[in-house]
């Protein structure tokens, strides 16, 4: 399993980084390092991710088939050609994390406002 596949598992399950890290029984920072490609994904994390997918009735074949094709293309690029793609991928993941955090804060504020309206 590579970083793209791990991120795809998160997307399919509809979880944010903290939620998927909790399900994998790792810290959020460890999860981020796996997704950003900064650390190799241990086999036990791969197995847990695959089990999460099978519990969710998702097709592992679809996830890994598409990402395997992307990985094959990526692996055939020269190192210098990979750098901009990795940077763009990392920035995209960071932007998504920011958006998820903003959504979480918004939902929390909305809930608080609704509670205040019912009390007042």
UniProtKB/TrEMBL annotation:
Single GO MF annotation = DNA binding
Superkingdom field = Bacteria
Q: By what name is this protein known?
A: Helix-turn-helix
Provide the species name. Aquimarina spongiae
């Amino acid at each position: 399993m590579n970083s793209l596949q791990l991120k795809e598992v998160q997307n399919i399950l509809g979880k944010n980084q903290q939620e998927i890290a909790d399900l994998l029984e790792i810290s959020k920072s460890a999860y981020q390092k796996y997704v950003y490609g900064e650390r190799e994904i241990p086999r036990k994390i791969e197995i847990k991710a695959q089990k999460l997918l099978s519990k969710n009735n998702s097709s592992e074949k679809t996830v890994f088939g598409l990402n395997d094709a992307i990985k094959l293309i990526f692996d055939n690029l020269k190192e210098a050609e990979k750098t901009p793609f990795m940077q763009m991928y990392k920035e995209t993941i960071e932007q998504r994390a920011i958006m998820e955090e903003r959504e979480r804060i918004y939902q929390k504020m909305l809930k608080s406002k609704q509670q205040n309206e019912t009390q007042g």
